[in-house]
């Protein structure tokens, strides 16, 4: 054959050795370097340029955040209050005589209010800025190490490209072929695709090495991003012989030029979505509208009317009137609304959020590294609804504190605290959407379920096999399986020899693993073909010593890309029919044997008989139909089938040279690619890797097997096949031909095999996934699985997950005008389920809400999944998406969900979050880009129960934080009501401004923040979360609760103030009743020193009593509904210490305030004041708190019952009874 010129030179010269069995790539000759592929340096430069360009176009604008913070109503009122305080200080300097000490205090108050205002404005601007920039900063944190360390150039061709959740492709760079994630391909890259591979971006078929644009006379073959490469792309009939020739030369691999850089699209999707506001944010927005707007202005209006009336009826001279007016009409109003101003609340929110994020992140890291098992709570009765099991971990509080500070100092963007609202979103999650399965909620490769053998009558024998996903052990479920050992032995030997995991060298892997023989590089094969079943072979009884007697001599990759069944298979079931045959030499007998595994159709076409455990039986049409029925049933149950065959090889004259023994220690075993005759027209020839033709005998094309069609139902009968001529090997003839080269000989060796059996494999949920889904339902979280498979297969897998598969259990998201048959079950049609995601909203509006209660959606595409997530969010659901960190199609959904969690599908990603030492692994970089919108990533071997424990702690932190804010706001409001009640009772201010600020900044925050250390409620994961809609519907009920809980402290505090003011004021003796309106009757600007000291003593006494009562009330706020007897407050040790410190601190403040001049003694107070204020009042007030909580608990339980009923009810208007 003449030497090929440049028009037929293909990249097979650049590939690794045949079949990719050797990990290092070969270097091309210099004469082939004219091929237009990119170098690694140029590709990296283009990748970085694309990332920088996208980041530059998505720079967030923070000016709107600054304007909003400055023009906010509360900001304006706070600024006006500070100016009013300064004005009063100036007036006091001019008008007071003798000098009023409180005037100096007012200046200090003004300074503190202004400082608080500036702090809050800066904090809000900073948070708005970082919220806008957080995603960009997250992506920059990925790009910068790439700029510094570069991308690793080490090729890894054994990574699986046929796993649905792993977006990998083969790319030509630096004269080698490397495996890269989709998002690392750049424009003008040469992408190597085999039939069945998915296009990483928009690509165009390369006609020659010197291709820069499609030739004028040739057609342009283009694949869009995500499109499956099928033989139908080359739609010309008959097929272009040039293309077929190149395919054979390149061993089934085609070369395409990338027309775009997919990273642009990835980053644009990650940066282009805005997540919904969290439940906490929306609740606070409603609260702020009522609290900081309506309540504040209402109280201000009432205070102004009262003080104006008080000022108007007071009989004083004109000068005194002016002096008194400054205090009545200005200062008193400021003091009334000062507790309502959000001076501290923004900081409290920031602290609570940062502490919660730090605790959740530390818990997440601890769960990732902990080796202990999850344990159930032993105190829960086995018949009760038990919460999910947890790990008893002790967090490193030094690490928690460091991460807490990092959010202020270094702005940690590793978990998107601001963008996702991490704690609030996790705590409020109502739906967990699994948007893929391989390697996320299931093992990355299928597990064996059944083995089919044939008995002496040709009838199938099915043995059930159970694989323990946690212990990684395989066992036969049938007790009498050993009676089939004669049939199982050759199959077991096949399983052990036909793998490259090192089993025949004694390395039996304990974990679930896959093959890495590179067979998938020549054409797509189902993931079941990559599952290694060496443990099953070991269970059958083969030892390591038995396998050491075999040495591999040759690997044969046989593909049929144009098999008639290929055109009719949908993407979910699509594969290129193929099988892998390997020739071994048994060292003891020096004999050669061929073991094959692969596509059932091709294996049966290559077999003439079957092994029944005793002898050989004829593989006739009747026996083949029984095998086909088994395969059809397996496909219905979402299983994959792999057939196994065997044949001995006699060392005859045609095979003598080819079967020359090679040493076991040989470095590389050469593989050979051939095309099965069923893939071509009659009488056609196929080309081997070297370009020589291997003639194959003609045969009628096999009819499409019904096992390969997903549009048929179980009730449909298989179409009868015409009798077909089976492939018989020429080397088995009496007079075998002698003029056979190696390629032709391999084509003959794979014929005339003996059928051994079939393994049925299916995806099994990872350990604990089924229990995890069940436990989520107890906690009011619906697990939703989006399946790309048709309805029948989706229900089969859903049943393994433990999901319901009866009526109203599955909705198809594909449109009705698609190629799929639609709903198959009659009852589903009666239920009038919507067909297509575009019909969901209409169904929710016009029919019922069944789509919100369904846990299974079938025939899903990425676009339909995204739209369904939007629908969930529109209906008030808080969506948490979990999916593969290497699935490029997940990025948009990750960005849209309220919170997303990536799961690494491959164990090779386990070290990607650790500090970098040297070039970055492409796998780690691709996963980092694809999972950039996710809060965090779970390792492949991390239990899914880690997520439930994280949600549990998030719920605890969220509940504690909500109670903390409620307590703080209630205390602030009570201060405001105390001040206005004093105005109504014609009393001086109960508290000075600096005392109010002392309470707001020093006393209440530590007591409030101590709530965050409340222990976990064991029942928190059995409660129904509130949806992200109709927030604070019971706001008037909560207002009534506030009145009932705080009317006592308000009255007691004002009463103590009035009594102590009357008793301390000896300069102008008053009875308790005369003090109302009588104190400072002449003018408050002219109080004597003793009157000022009497006022200060009374204010400090009232302040101490109020603080003491708030400490007692805080004990009842630690839990919203549980009584003090059920959940004693001392279980929160931090609160207990803080409560004691708070009372002591207030006592010190009182002592320091009264120390300059001991004008009065507290002993002058009547004994009953101490009894009422320090003993009786706390007891009565705590009792009132408990009474209110009883009522609130009843309402809460009603809400829980309604929510559980709604959650568990799936019946719709048209559902069958």
Automatic annotation (TrEMBL):
Keyword list (alphabetical) reads:
Membrane, Transmembrane, Transmembrane helix
User: Any stretches that span the bilayer, and where are they?
Assistant: 76-95, 101-123, 291-309, 329-352, 965-990, 996-1015, 1036-1062, 1094-1113, 1134-1155, 1167-1188
| Region span, Disordered | 684-730
Taken from the UniProt entry, a GO cellular component term is:
membrane
Q: Pfam families per the record?
A: Cation_ATPase_C (PF00689)
Q: Tell me the superkingdom of the source.
A: Eukaryota
User: InterPro entries under this entry?
Assistant: ATPase_P-typ_cation-transptr_C (IPR006068), ATPase_P-typ_TM_dom_sf (IPR023298), HAD-like_sf (IPR036412), HAD_sf (IPR023214), TMEM94 (IPR039720)
Give me the stretches of Low complexity compositional bias.
684-697, 705-715
The compartments listed are: Membrane
Domain named Cation-transporting P-type ATPase C-terminal: which ranges?
990-1184
Name the chain's protein: Cation-transporting P-type ATPase C-terminal domain-containing protein
């Amino acid at each position: 054959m003449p030497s090929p010129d440049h028009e037929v030179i293909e990249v097979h010269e650049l590939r690794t050795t045949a079949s990719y069995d050797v990990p290092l790539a070969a270097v091309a000759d210099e004469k082939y370097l004219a091929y237009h592929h990119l170098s690694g340096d140029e590709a990296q430069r283009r990748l970085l340029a694309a990332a920088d360009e996208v980041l530059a176009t998505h720079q967030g604008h923070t000016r709107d955040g600054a304007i909003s913070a400055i023009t906010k109503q509360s900001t304006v009122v706070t600024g006006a209050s500070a100016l009013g305080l300064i004005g009063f200080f100036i007036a006091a300097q001019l008008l007071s005589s003798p000098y009023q000490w409180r005037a100096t205090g007012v200046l200090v108050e003004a300074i503190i209010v202004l400082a608080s205002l500036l702090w809050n404005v800066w904090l809000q601007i900073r948070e708005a800025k970082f919220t806008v920039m957080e995603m960009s900063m997250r992506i920059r944190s990925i790009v910068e190490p790439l700029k510094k360390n570069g991308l690793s150039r080490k090729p890894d061709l054994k990574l699986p490209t046929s796993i649905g959740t792993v977006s990998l492709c083969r790319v030509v760079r630096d004269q080698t072929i490397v495996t890269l994630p989709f998002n690392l391909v750049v424009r003008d890259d040469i992408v190597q695709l085999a039939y069945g591979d998915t296009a990483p971006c928009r690509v165009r078929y390369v006609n020659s090495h010197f291709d820069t644009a499609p030739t004028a006379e040739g057609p342009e073959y283009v694949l869009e991003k995500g499109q499956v490469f099928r033989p139908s792309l080359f739609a010309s009939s008959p097929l272009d012989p040039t293309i077929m020739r190149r395919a054979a030369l390149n061993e089934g691999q085609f070369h395409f030029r990338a027309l775009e850089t997919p990273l642009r699209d990835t980053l644009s999707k990650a940066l282009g979505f805005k997540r919904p506001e969290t439940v906490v944010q929306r609740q606070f927005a409603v609260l702020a509208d009522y609290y900081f707007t309506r309540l504040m202005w209402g109280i201000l209006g009432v205070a102004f009317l009262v003080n104006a009336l008080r000022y108007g009826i007071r009989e004083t001279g004109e000068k005194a009137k002016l002096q008194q007016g400054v205090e009545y009409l200005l200062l008193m109003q400021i003091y009334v609304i000062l507790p309502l101003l959000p001076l501290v609340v923004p900081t409290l929110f920031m602290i609570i959020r940062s502490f919660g994020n730090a605790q959740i992140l530390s818990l997440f890291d601890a769960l990732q590294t902990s080796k202990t098992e999850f344990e159930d709570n032993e105190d829960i009765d086995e018949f009760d609804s038990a919460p999910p099991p947890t790990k008893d971990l002790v967090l490193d509080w030094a690490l928690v504190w460091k991460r807490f500070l990092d959010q202020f100092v270094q702005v940690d963007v590793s978990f998107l605290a601001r963008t996702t609202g991490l704690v609030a979103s996790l705590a409020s999650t109502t739906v967990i959407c699994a948007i893929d399965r391989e390697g996320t909620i299931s093992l990355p490769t299928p597990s064996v379920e059944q083995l089919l053998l044939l008995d002496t009558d040709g009838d199938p024998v099915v043995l059930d096999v159970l694989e323990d996903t946690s212990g990684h052990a395989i066992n036969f479920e049938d007790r009498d399986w050993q009676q089939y050992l004669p049939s199982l032995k050759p199959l077991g030997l096949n399983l052990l020899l036909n793998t490259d995991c090192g089993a025949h060298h004694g390395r039996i892997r304990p974990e679930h693993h896959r093959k890495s023989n590179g067979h998938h590089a020549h054409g797509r094969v189902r993931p079941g073909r990559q599952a290694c079943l060496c443990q099953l072979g070991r269970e059958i009884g083969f030892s390591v010593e038995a396998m050491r007697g075999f040495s591999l001599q040759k690997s044969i990759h046989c593909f049929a890309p144009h098999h008639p069944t290929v055109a009719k298979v949908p993407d979910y079931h699509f594969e290129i029919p193929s099988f892998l045959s390997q020739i071994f030499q048994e060292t003891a007998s020096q004999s050669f044997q061929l073991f094959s595994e692969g596509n059932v159709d091709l294996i049966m076409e290559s077999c003439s008989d079957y092994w029944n455990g005793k002898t050989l039986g004829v593989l006739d049409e009747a026996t083949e139909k029984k095998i086909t029925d088994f395969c059809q049933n397996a496909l219905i149950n979402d299983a994959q089938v792999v057939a196994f065959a065997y044949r001995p090889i006699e060392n005859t004259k045609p095979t003598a040279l080819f079967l020359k023994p090679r040493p076991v220690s040989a470095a590389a075993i050469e593989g050979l690619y051939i095309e099965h005759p069923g893939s071509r027209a009659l009488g056609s020839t196929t080309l081997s890797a070297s370009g020589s033709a291997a003639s194959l005998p003609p045969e009628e094309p096999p009819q499409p097997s019904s096992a390969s069609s997903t549009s048929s139902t179980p009730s449909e009968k298989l179409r009868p096949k015409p009798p077909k001529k089976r492939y018989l090997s020429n080397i088995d003839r009496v007079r075998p031909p002698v003029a056979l080269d190696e390629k032709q000989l391999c084509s003959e060796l794979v014929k005339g095999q003996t059928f051994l059996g079939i393994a049925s494999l299916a995806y099994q949920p990872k350990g604990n996934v089924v229990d995890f889904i069940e436990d989520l339902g107890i906690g009011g979280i619906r697990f939703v699985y989006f399946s790309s498979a048709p309805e029948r297969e989706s229900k089969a897998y859903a049943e393994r997950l433990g999901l319901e598969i009866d009526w109203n259990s599955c909705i198809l998201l594909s449109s009705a005008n698609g190629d799929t048959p639609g709903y198959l079950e009659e009852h589903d049609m009666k239920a009038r389920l919507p067909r297509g995601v575009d019909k969901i909203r209409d169904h929710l509006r016009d029919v019922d809400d069944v789509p919100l209660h369904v846990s299974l959606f079938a025939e899903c595409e990425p676009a339909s999944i995204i739209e369904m997530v939007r629908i969930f969010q529109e209906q008030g659901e808080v969506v948490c998406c979990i999916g593969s960190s290497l699935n490029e199609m997940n990025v948009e959904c990750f960005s849209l969900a309220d919170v997303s969690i990536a799961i690494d599908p491959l164990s090779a990603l386990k070290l990607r979050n650790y500090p970098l030492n040297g070039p970055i692994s492409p796998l780690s970089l691709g996963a980092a880009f694809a999972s950039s919108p996710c809060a965090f990533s779970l390792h492949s071997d991390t239990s899914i129960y880690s997520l439930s424990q994280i949600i549990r702690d998030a719920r605890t932190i969220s509940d504690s934080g909500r109670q903390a804010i409620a307590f703080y706001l209630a205390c602030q409001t009570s201060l405001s009501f105390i001040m206005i009640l004093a105005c109504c009772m014609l009393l001086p201010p109960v508290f000075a401004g600096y005392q109010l600020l002392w309470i707001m900044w020093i006393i209440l925050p530590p007591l409030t923040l101590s709530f965050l250390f409340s222990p976990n409620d064991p029942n928190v994961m059995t409660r129904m979360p509130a949806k992200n809609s109709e927030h604070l519907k019971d706001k008037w009920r909560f207002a009534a609760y506030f009145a009932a809980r705080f009317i006592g402290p308000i009255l007691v505090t004002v009463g103590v103030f009035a009594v102590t003011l009357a008793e301390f004021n000896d300069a102008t003796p008053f009875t308790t009743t005369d003090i109302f309106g009588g104190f400072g009757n002449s003018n408050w600007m002219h109080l004597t020193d003793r009157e000022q000291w009497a006022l200060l003593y009374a204010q400090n006494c009232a302040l101490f009593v109020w603080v003491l009562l708030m400490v007692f009330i805080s004990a009842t706020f630690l839990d919203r509904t549980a009584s003090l007897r059920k959940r004693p407050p001392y279980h929160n040790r931090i609160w207990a210490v803080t409560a004691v410190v708070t009372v002591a601190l207030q006592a010190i403040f009182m002592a320091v305030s009264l120390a300059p001049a001991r004008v009065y003694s507290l002993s002058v107070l009547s004994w009953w004041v101490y009894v009422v204020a320090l003993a009786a009042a706390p007891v009565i007030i705590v009792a009132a708190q408990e009474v209110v909580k009883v009522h609130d608990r009843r309402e809460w339980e009603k809400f829980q019952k309604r929510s559980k009923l709604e959650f568990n009810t799936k019946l719709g208007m048209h559902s069958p009874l």
